[in-house]
């Protein structure tokens, strides 16, 4: 038997698509009696929800100030990828790497039993080794994405050049991957994946090199997934890396209470509108905060929603090119479109929306966290991947029969007709009946709290057995 009183330090990359899964895992571990310290920067910590009162004593949200770099490259208020255009994220990595010294001091002072780190902070490896602290890697990506990343030795040197060299070679999986053909990249998705993981940047260390170092040094890889959905890919990941691949469950957000508390007047109005719609009739449209949609893309999505003739609720983050909220949409596209659709500019209570009985489907970027959140409520998916791992998630969801992908040209562009066609097929057409049925059936996995609590229990047992008495 291992020790009961263990302390785990969590270190996510400064992107909320990473920080939130780390926070959800922290909450789950604390509920199981584990003391957790989640480390990030002050602004990021302030934007997180507070731990529930019953576990607050077991969770420390630790603020380490982000070191300053050239403010012409990284503004003082920018502490997460959401604060920056895509081409400036490389400078956030420069500042993030400078957290090595304050993080090392924190580890020296606290002497945790485990370090659980993201794939980006490669410098935490030496800290774990110096203080002889066992190291785990936690991936917020799907296992299918990790499989395509490949073995650590492939991520450095000439390995990546043999495969990630041209668009033609990127459109097929590497030789070690036994994927169905549906998982192969299209050219624009392959280029996006390559640029994100293997591209050069101001820090001098590509994401591929960071991942290689972390994967090589970690004792095991904890993954936000479950065997019931990605069992075949988990076996492949363990084979590729030679490390145990440990599912920690899907870490779904808590279901909102049946009695809604809406203090925002605009959202009170929107929920009253939702209450009047037929069950499973409304499409929720959300591309999160990381995907920066162009003016042309917003225009095509807006017109596609109109052409679909389906009721919809679109939560749109104000684009960087928009002067004001009205400028974010085509001139003829009103926020309240003839009573059939609603557009809200800004933050949205996504879990509350997805839990509403009128929502039947989701048009989104196929981010892994959003896919999990939608499928726990049995919604059919229309996917429009835009950056990084989203193309692979789209392949996975289509392969599983849970999603329709919007058709696109080889350059990645899509039209309003493509949007409308995919939405109607998923939501109302006879051809989409099986898709809708499989999405409902998926709640048996994605909505099963006991199943995913059991994964956490097994993970906690692994942590306790790995610590000396």
Q: What's the helix and strand layout?
A:
Blueprint: E1 7-11, H1 16-31, E2 35-40, H2 42-46, E3 59-63, H3 89-97, H4 100-110, E4 114-117, H5 124-130, E5 135-139, H6 143-149, H7 159-163, H8 167-170, H9 187-198, H10 207-217, E6 220-223, H11 227-241, E7 245-247, H12 265-275, E8 282-286, H13 295-308, E9 312-316, E10 336-337, E11 341-345, H14 350-354, E12 359-364, H15 368-375, E13 380-383, H16 390-399, E14 403-405, H17 416-427, H18 433-441, H19 443-446, H20 449-465
Parallel strand pairs: 1-2, 1-4, 2-3, 4-5, 5-6, 6-7, 8-9, 8-12, 9-11, 12-13, 13-14
Antiparallel strand pairs: 10-11
What does this structure look like?
It contains 20 helices and 14 strands. The radius of gyration is 22 Å and the shape is globular. It has helices spanning 16-31, 42-46, 89-97, 100-110, 124-130, 143-149, 159-163, 167-170, 187-198, 207-217, 227-241, 265-275, 295-308, 350-354, 368-375, 390-399, 416-427, 433-441, 443-446, 449-465, and strands at residues 7-11, 35-40, 59-63, 114-117, 135-139, 220-223, 245-247, 282-286, 312-316, 336-337, 341-345, 359-364, 380-383, 403-405. The protein is 41% helix and 13% strand. With 469 residues, it is α/β, with parallel strands linked by helices. It folds into 2 domains: 7-252 and 449-465, Glycogen Phosphorylase B (Rossmann fold); 265-446, Glycogen Phosphorylase B (Rossmann fold, 3-Layer(aba) Sandwich), CATH 3.40.50. The strands form 2 sheets. It has a 7-stranded parallel β-sheet, with helices on both faces. Strands 10-11-9-8-12-13-14 form a 7-stranded mixed β-sheet, with helices on both faces. The N and C termini lie close together (9 Å).
């Amino acid at each position: 038997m291992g020790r009961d009183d263990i302390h785990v330090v969590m270190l996510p990359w400064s992107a909320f698509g990473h920080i939130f899964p780390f926070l959800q895992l922290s909450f789950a571990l604390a509920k199981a009696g584990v003391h957790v310290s989640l480390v990030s920067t002050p602004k990021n910590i302030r934007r997180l929800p507070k731990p529930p009162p019953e576990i607050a004593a077991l969770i420390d949200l630790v603020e380490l100030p982000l070191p300053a770099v050239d403010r012409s490259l990284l503004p003082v208020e920018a502490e997460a990828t959401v604060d920056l255009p895509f081409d400036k994220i490389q400078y956030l990595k420069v500042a993030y790497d400078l957290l090595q010294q304050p993080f090392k001091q924190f580890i020296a002072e606290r002497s945790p039993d485990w370090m659980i780190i993201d794939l980006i902070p490669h410098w935490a490896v030496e800290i774990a080794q110096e203080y002889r602290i066992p190291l785990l890697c936690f991936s917020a990506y799907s296992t299918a994405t990790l499989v395509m990343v490949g073995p650590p030795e492939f991520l450095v040197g000439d390995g990546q050049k043999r495969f990630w060299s041209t668009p033609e070679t990127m459109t097929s999986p590497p030789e070690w991957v036994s994927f169905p053909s549906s998982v192969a990249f299209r050219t624009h998705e392959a280029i996006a994946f390559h640029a994100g993981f293997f591209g050069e940047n101001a820090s001098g260390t590509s994401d591929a090199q960071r991942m290689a170092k972390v994967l090589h040094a970690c004792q095991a890889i904890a993954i936000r997934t479950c065997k019931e959905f990605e069992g075949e890919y988990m076996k492949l990941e363990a084979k590729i890396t030679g490390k145990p691949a440990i599912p920690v469950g899907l870490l779904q957000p808590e279901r909102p209470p049946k009695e809604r508390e809406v203090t925002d007047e605009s959202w009170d109005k929107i929920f009253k509108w939702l209450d009047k719609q037929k069950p499973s009739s409304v499409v929720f449209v959300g591309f999160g905060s990381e995907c920066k949609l162009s003016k042309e893309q917003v225009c095509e999505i807006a017109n596609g929603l109109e052409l679909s003739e389906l009721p919809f609720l679109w939560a749109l983050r104000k684009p960087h090119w928009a002067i004001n909220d009205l400028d974010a949409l085509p001139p003829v596209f009103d926020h309240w479109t003839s009573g059939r659709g609603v557009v809200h500019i800004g933050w949205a209570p996504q879990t509350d929306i997805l839990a509403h009985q009128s929502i039947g489907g989701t048009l989104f970027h196929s981010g892994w966290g959003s896919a999990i959140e939608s499928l726990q409520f049995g919604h059919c998916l229309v996917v429009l991947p835009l950056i990084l791992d989203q193309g692979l998630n789209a392949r996975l969801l289509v392969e599983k029969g849970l999603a329709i992908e919007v058709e696109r040209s080889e350059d990645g562009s899509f039209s309003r007709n493509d949007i409308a066609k995919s939405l109607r097929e998923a939501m109302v057409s006879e051809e989409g009946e099986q898709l809708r049925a499989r999405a409902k059936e998926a709640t048996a996995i994605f909505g099963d709290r006991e199943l995913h609590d059991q994964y956490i229990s097994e993970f906690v047992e692994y942590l306790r057995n790995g610590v000396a008495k």
